[in-house]
Design a protein that fits this description.
By secondary structure, the protein is mainly α. It has a domain of 118 residues. The protein is 67% helix and 3% strand. A two-stranded antiparallel ribbon has the order 1-2. Helix 3 runs antiparallel to helix 4.
Length: 230
């Protein structure tokens, strides 16, 4: 288990670098933009360094998102999550898009072997799905998703003379007692219904937003966007 949890040794970013703000990564992005690539070995190293940078940045983003999701009532954790979304992730997406363009425009990218074709396809898809117009929309999308987490994370269900969270209630749905399962299901549904107006409004707003995100990259709907993305 300890081996599985062992962090990979960084080859590009300094081991002490933490992505607390944009200033902690902008120099690394600038180096990747300016680096000259003269052979396939150099291109391969460039891709590895870019991959490491992306991994480090999104490890920070995921850490903040998980912390916020686990503590939906903590204002400081929520602010840290949105600080990442607005002030790190938004400009980072645009920077990575430009770096991907640099890669695809390089003559050597077309000479990479069969083992690199899946990576090249992924990069081409990322470029096709990028739109500067979507950057603020994706921030709004993240805020709506966080609001959903805030609503559902606060749910407590009164059942069998005790208070349970929704995940705790799920245990009763696995009971061999059919009546207990039925009562648990009804109790959970009753709690959800209390917030149906909020959730309906939220989902309607999210639908409009996501349809616009898809339209901005020339797709007919968000389903097509997700299909292409994955």
């Amino acid at each position: 288990m300890n081996e599985l949890l062992k962090k990979f040794s960084r080859q590009f970013l300094a081991a002490t670098v933490k992505v607390e703000s944009w200033k902690h990564i902008e120099n690394y992005l600038e180096e990747l933009f300016k680096r000259e690539i003269h052979d396939k070995a150099a291109l391969h190293k460039w891709l590895l360094d870019l991959s490491e940078l992306i991994s480090v940045v999104y490890e920070e983003g995921t850490t903040r998102e998980v912390a916020m999701t686990c503590h939906t009532d903590d204002e400081e954790l929520k602010n840290r999550h949105f600080d990442f979304v607005e002030n790190i992730d938004s400009p980072f997406k645009e920077a990575v898009f430009k770096l991907y363009q640099k890669f695809l425009a390089h003559p050597l990218s077309a000479q990479l072997g069969v083992e690199s074709q899946q990576l090249i396809l992924m990069i081409k898809t990322e470029v096709e799905l990028f739109s500067e117009k979507n950057i603020p929309l994706e921030v709004s999308e993240a805020k709506l998703c966080q609001h959903y987490q805030e609503i559902t994370g606060s749910w407590m269900v009164s059942f069998e003379d005790k208070e349970y969270t929704m995940p705790e209630m799920a245990v009763f749905l696995e009971s061999n007692n059919a009546k207990l399962r039925e009562n648990a299901f009804k109790a959970m549904a009753s709690r959800r219904i209390q917030d149906q107006d909020q959730l309906n409004t939220l989902f309607s707003n999210l639908l409009v937003l996501r349809e616009q995100i898809a339209a901005n990259v020339g797709l007919n709907g968000y389903r097509d966007y997700l299909f292409k993305q994955n």
